[in-house]
Amino acid sequence: MDYTIPANTRIGHVHLKVANLDRSLAFYCDLLGFSLVTTYSADAAFISAGGYHHHIGLNTWYSKNAPPAPVRSAGLFHTAILYPTRKDLAVAFRRLREANYPISGASDHGVSEAIYLDDPDQNGVELYWDRPRELWPSKPDGSLEMYTRPLNLQGLLGELL
Length: 161
Prior knowledge:
Elements: E1 14-17, H1 21-31, E2 35-40, E3 44-48, E4 56-59, E5 79-83, H2 86-98, E6 105-108, E7 112-118, E8 124-130, E9 149-150, H3 153-157
Parallel strand pairs: 1-4, 5-8
Antiparallel strand pairs: 2-3, 3-4, 6-7, 6-9, 7-8
Protein backbone atom coordinates (compact mmCIF):
# COMPACT_ATOMS: atom_id res chain seq x y z
CA MET A 1 0.00 0.00 0.00
CA ASP A 2 1.35 3.43 -0.96
CA TYR A 3 1.25 5.90 1.88
CA THR A 4 2.70 9.36 2.31
CA ILE A 5 2.69 10.93 5.74
CA PRO A 6 0.56 14.13 5.82
CA ALA A 7 2.47 17.28 4.86
CA ASN A 8 1.61 19.09 8.09
CA THR A 9 2.99 16.29 10.31
CA ARG A 10 5.79 17.48 12.59
CA ILE A 11 8.06 16.23 15.32
CA GLY A 12 6.38 17.17 18.58
CA HIS A 13 9.15 16.73 21.14
CA VAL A 14 12.37 14.95 22.01
CA HIS A 15 12.97 13.17 25.30
CA LEU A 16 16.61 12.91 26.41
CA LYS A 17 18.30 10.68 28.96
CA VAL A 18 20.61 12.86 31.04
CA ALA A 19 23.01 12.20 33.90
CA ASN A 20 22.21 15.25 36.01
CA LEU A 21 18.83 16.98 35.77
CA ASP A 22 19.91 20.28 37.36
CA ARG A 23 22.90 20.56 35.01
CA SER A 24 20.68 19.92 31.99
CA LEU A 25 18.09 22.46 33.15
CA ALA A 26 20.85 25.04 33.53
CA PHE A 27 21.88 24.42 29.91
CA TYR A 28 18.45 24.23 28.27
CA CYS A 29 16.66 26.83 30.42
CA ASP A 30 19.28 29.26 31.74
CA LEU A 31 21.51 29.29 28.63
CA LEU A 32 19.20 28.46 25.71
CA GLY A 33 16.12 30.11 27.24
CA PHE A 34 13.54 27.30 27.40
CA SER A 35 10.99 27.50 30.21
CA LEU A 36 10.41 24.80 32.78
CA VAL A 37 6.81 23.59 32.43
CA THR A 38 6.77 20.89 35.09
CA THR A 39 8.78 18.25 36.86
CA TYR A 40 7.88 14.61 37.29
CA SER A 41 9.28 13.59 40.67
CA ALA A 42 12.96 14.44 41.10
CA ASP A 43 13.90 12.45 38.00
CA ALA A 44 12.32 14.24 35.04
CA ALA A 45 11.53 17.71 33.77
CA PHE A 46 9.57 19.03 30.81
CA ILE A 47 10.57 22.29 29.14
CA SER A 48 9.16 24.35 26.28
CA ALA A 49 9.19 27.48 24.22
CA GLY A 50 6.03 29.55 24.22
CA GLY A 51 3.99 27.54 26.70
CA TYR A 52 3.64 24.26 24.77
CA HIS A 53 3.30 21.29 27.14
CA HIS A 54 6.89 20.31 26.27
CA HIS A 55 9.35 20.45 23.44
CA ILE A 56 12.06 18.65 25.39
CA GLY A 57 11.73 16.06 28.11
CA LEU A 58 14.77 15.41 30.31
CA ASN A 59 15.03 12.36 32.55
CA THR A 60 17.49 10.42 34.68
CA TRP A 61 15.38 7.24 34.87
CA TYR A 62 18.13 5.04 33.36
CA SER A 63 21.02 7.47 33.24
CA LYS A 64 21.50 9.17 36.62
CA ASN A 65 25.20 10.01 37.04
CA ALA A 66 26.03 7.93 33.95
CA PRO A 67 28.78 8.81 31.48
CA PRO A 68 27.84 10.16 28.04
CA ALA A 69 26.93 7.61 25.37
CA PRO A 70 29.85 6.67 23.12
CA VAL A 71 30.14 8.87 20.03
CA ARG A 72 30.68 5.87 17.79
CA SER A 73 27.42 4.10 18.64
CA ALA A 74 23.87 4.08 17.36
CA GLY A 75 21.62 6.73 18.80
CA LEU A 76 20.54 10.33 18.42
CA PHE A 77 22.92 12.44 16.30
CA HIS A 78 21.45 15.76 17.39
CA THR A 79 18.32 17.57 18.41
CA ALA A 80 17.58 20.46 16.04
CA ILE A 81 16.01 23.57 17.53
CA LEU A 82 14.39 25.77 14.88
CA TYR A 83 14.40 29.52 15.54
CA PRO A 84 11.78 31.69 13.83
CA THR A 85 14.22 34.29 12.46
CA ARG A 86 17.88 34.79 11.69
CA LYS A 87 17.97 37.48 14.38
CA ASP A 88 16.73 34.96 16.97
CA LEU A 89 19.57 32.61 15.98
CA ALA A 90 22.00 35.54 16.33
CA VAL A 91 20.73 36.19 19.87
CA ALA A 92 21.26 32.54 20.76
CA PHE A 93 24.78 32.62 19.33
CA ARG A 94 25.60 35.81 21.23
CA ARG A 95 24.41 34.17 24.48
CA LEU A 96 26.63 31.15 23.83
CA ARG A 97 29.59 33.43 23.14
CA GLU A 98 29.00 35.52 26.24
CA ALA A 99 28.85 32.32 28.33
CA ASN A 100 32.04 31.02 26.65
CA TYR A 101 30.08 27.89 25.75
CA PRO A 102 31.95 25.83 23.14
CA ILE A 103 30.43 25.31 19.72
CA SER A 104 31.52 22.46 17.49
CA GLY A 105 30.55 24.00 14.17
CA ALA A 106 28.62 26.61 12.24
CA SER A 107 27.29 25.94 8.74
CA ASP A 108 25.34 27.49 5.92
CA HIS A 109 23.30 24.72 4.31
CA GLY A 110 21.65 26.86 1.65
CA VAL A 111 18.20 26.14 3.06
CA SER A 112 19.25 27.05 6.59
CA GLU A 113 22.01 28.41 8.80
CA ALA A 114 23.06 26.34 11.80
CA ILE A 115 25.23 26.39 14.90
CA TYR A 116 26.29 23.06 16.40
CA LEU A 117 27.20 22.27 20.00
CA ASP A 118 26.85 19.56 22.61
CA ASP A 119 24.73 19.71 25.74
CA PRO A 120 26.34 18.77 29.09
CA ASP A 121 25.72 15.05 28.38
CA GLN A 122 27.36 15.29 24.95
CA ASN A 123 24.01 15.08 23.16
CA GLY A 124 24.36 16.96 19.90
CA VAL A 125 22.31 20.15 19.55
CA GLU A 126 21.71 22.12 16.35
CA LEU A 127 20.41 25.68 16.64
CA TYR A 128 19.16 26.89 13.26
CA TRP A 129 16.78 29.01 11.22
CA ASP A 130 15.33 28.20 7.82
CA ARG A 131 15.62 30.63 4.95
CA PRO A 132 12.31 31.38 3.24
CA ARG A 133 11.45 28.52 0.87
CA GLU A 134 11.62 30.77 -2.19
CA LEU A 135 15.33 31.34 -1.43
CA TRP A 136 16.26 27.67 -1.17
CA PRO A 137 18.88 26.75 -3.77
CA SER A 138 18.03 24.24 -6.48
CA LYS A 139 19.96 22.07 -8.88
CA PRO A 140 19.57 22.47 -12.65
CA ASP A 141 16.94 19.70 -12.62
CA GLY A 142 14.87 21.68 -10.07
CA SER A 143 15.59 19.42 -7.08
CA LEU A 144 16.75 20.89 -3.79
CA GLU A 145 20.46 21.62 -3.45
CA MET A 146 21.66 21.47 0.12
CA TYR A 147 25.32 21.98 0.95
CA THR A 148 27.61 22.62 3.88
CA ARG A 149 29.63 25.83 3.79
CA PRO A 150 31.15 27.81 6.66
CA LEU A 151 28.66 30.14 8.33
CA ASN A 152 29.78 33.75 8.59
CA LEU A 153 29.33 34.22 12.33
CA GLN A 154 30.23 37.91 12.25
CA GLY A 155 27.58 38.40 9.57
CA LEU A 156 25.11 36.55 11.78
CA LEU A 157 25.92 38.85 14.70
CA GLY A 158 25.31 41.79 12.34
CA GLU A 159 21.61 40.96 12.68
CA LEU A 160 21.81 42.44 16.18
CA LEU A 161 22.99 45.90 15.11
